[in-house]
Amino acid sequence: MDIAGMAERIAGGERRALARAITLVESGRADHRAQATELLATLDTGRQALRIGLSGTPGVGKSTFIESFGKMLTAQGKRVAVLAVDPSSARSGGSILGDKTRMDELARDPNAFIRPSPSQTHLGGVARRTREAVALCEAAGYDVVLIETVGVGQSETVVAQMSDLFLLLLAPAGGDELQGVKRGIMEMADLIVINKADGDLKATAVRTQADYAGALRLLRKRAQDPDGYPKAMTVSALEDRGLPEVWTALEELAEWRRETGHWDATRAAQARYWFEEAVKAALLAELETPDAQARLKALSQAVAAGDAEPTVAARDFVQQLRGETPQAG
Amino acid sequence: MDIAGMAERIAGGERRALARAITLVESGRADHRAQATELLATLDTGRQALRIGLSGTPGVGKSTFIESFGKMLTAQGKRVAVLAVDPSSARSGGSILGDKTRMDELARDPNAFIRPSPSQTHLGGVARRTREAVALCEAAGYDVVLIETVGVGQSETVVAQMSDLFLLLLAPAGGDELQGVKRGIMEMADLIVINKADGDLKATAVRTQADYAGALRLLRKRAQDPDGYPKAMTVSALEDRGLPEVWTALEELAEWRRETGHWDATRAAQARYWFEEAVKAALLAELETPDAQARLKALSQAVAAGDAEPTVAARDFVQQLRGETPQAG
């Protein structure tokens, strides 16, 4: 594979080259992994997009929001990439962005790039690949990278680790119930956006916004937040209302963090985190060869049957892996 | 170190030998780790104690409960070991069982063995060591091993992975509030025991028991549970009331699980889990040498400064670790 040529085409903004590179990054094959790493080493990864993490429970209108929000940005001449982290895609075989018809217009926009979630067994694997895909989108000159996930907890933490800002999309809800949103996710949000502020739901949306604004004031006061943030707002993705205000808020917050140094500090901490994760993954990759898997399975059965002590079996396994003779006993 | 002699003394029930063996198991030194593994390979680890996980929020009277419950069991001629998993001990420098005066009488009982939580940075490390300490206690002929932890979530999951039964100790509480106990911990419990059912709190304790009995019926119906389990009961550890009933319930449940095969299935799954954890830990132990740590730190700083891409830096690090020449790029 011509890595240098691919890097050049990505830097030149070719969407097809970017799509192929992400496929390479997502591959589990060792030779693909080596090529993907070589590609990342070749590309200029110094460019920074605005990385926006986006979460919301199913039915909240996330696709409609991304479509409307994305189209607004591309109309301003910005280039927008949409990636997804979906821990359930391994099970369902599908992906939250797989149904591209849901973002029909944005998908056809030449300034937009939409990529479904990779299907993988482990959230950790999906996460590392998505982080690399984000880096590829930045190198390809995208101005905004939206990283979408579903509201199930662990995937939000992972998306927050690769985002500059985190947006939580919610539906209007009666009363002051917090819609089953986990406190941890609330604490992660820089912006809570109540969607469907239209028609019959408009009044409820405004009330919901007030509830969340109150909850946010109680929940969080971080050094990374200027006055007024985290913030709750209402939008109607369907009627295209409130979206410019969301963008203004995101830009204002990003700008403040850049000026105060929080932006760089967060990016540095995230880079450290992904470096350490990649080191661990590389060491554990020793377990992924067919030979290692077969021996792991056999020893695991012996351990389960009570024929071997877990710690002792692990020592013997690792010694064999390293080509040492297991000790007697 | 005379591993064979130590194994013999442990099998003979010598508490001092057991204590020294647990110190060996807890050590982070590579030579100690090798000796500890050798000891586990030498000992007969086929003996099974009843392993009881025990959790409860601070102030619930856990030490008093363990002291009363343990003394009741030793009075019946049973040998009882008490271990602890305390993720906070690394920070506090202390340990939940460090204050032995809290279990004064049990500590002096020749049929009891009490061991504080090891001080370690990572819960994962504490967990693996405690699992090995449990195996040592079983090999030393203890009939009951109590594994204590505090009610903070992750440590409960880890204790449940090394327990046959899980007991959650709670205080009497007004109303139907669930005392901030996480749903996940509730779902883990085979027995919820409301302590302090004495004096002014007695009526409240009975009401709390009814509340939790109701909650348990809604929360869980697993194949591992016979009719009537999970169960909520009241005790007074202070006045020594209700403890025989707790023991009867635990024995009844254990017996049912043994007969239905759930006991063996759970033990097998746990053994597999600890084997896999030990394999991962052994592979990641490569990172713990001073040389690896120094290079990890330097690369981490380069990555944080934006001078190296995380995935690329990780590849270079692992290649150096393996003595390969890092690729150019």
Query: What amount of the residues of chain A lies in strands?
Result: 5-15%
CATH superfamily assignment of the largest domain in chain A? P-loop containing nucleotide triphosphate hydrolases
State the oligomer.
homodimer
Most extensive contact: A-B, 50 and 50 residues
Biggest sheet: strand arrangement of chain A: 3-2-4-1-5-6-7
Mean pLDDT of chain A: 87
Rg on CA atoms of chain A, Å: 22 Å
Give the N-terminus to C-terminus distance of chain A in angstroms: 49 Å
CATH class of the largest domain in chain A: Alpha Beta
User: What is the element string of chain A, with H for helices and E for strands?
Assistant: HHHEHEHHEHEHEHEHEHHHH
The number of domains of chain A = 2
Segments of chain A where pLDDT lies below 50 for 5+ residues? 89-95
Write a structural description.
2 copies of one chain form a homodimer. Chain A has 2 domains: 1-43, Up-down Bundle (Single alpha-helices involved in coiled-coils or other helix-helix interfaces), CATH 1.20.5.170; 45-259, Rossmann fold. Chain A contains 14 helices and 7 strands. Chain A has helices at residues 3-11, 15-26, 30-42, 62-75, 89-92, 104-108, 123-139, 154-160, 183-188, 202-219, 243-260, 262-284, 290-304, 310-321, and strands spanning 50-56, 80-85, 112-114, 144-150, 165-170, 191-194, 231-234. In chain A, strands 3-2-4-1-5-6-7 form a 7-stranded parallel beta sheet, with helices on both faces. In chain A, helix 1 crosses helix 2 (15-26), helix 2 crosses helix 3 and helix 2 (15-26) packs antiparallel against helix 7 (123-139). The longest helix of chain A has 23 residues, at 262-284. Chain A starts with a helix and ends in an 8-residue tail after the last helix. Chains A and B meet through helix 3, helix 7, helix 12, helix 13 and helix 14 of A and helix 3, helix 7, helix 12, helix 13 and helix 14 of B.
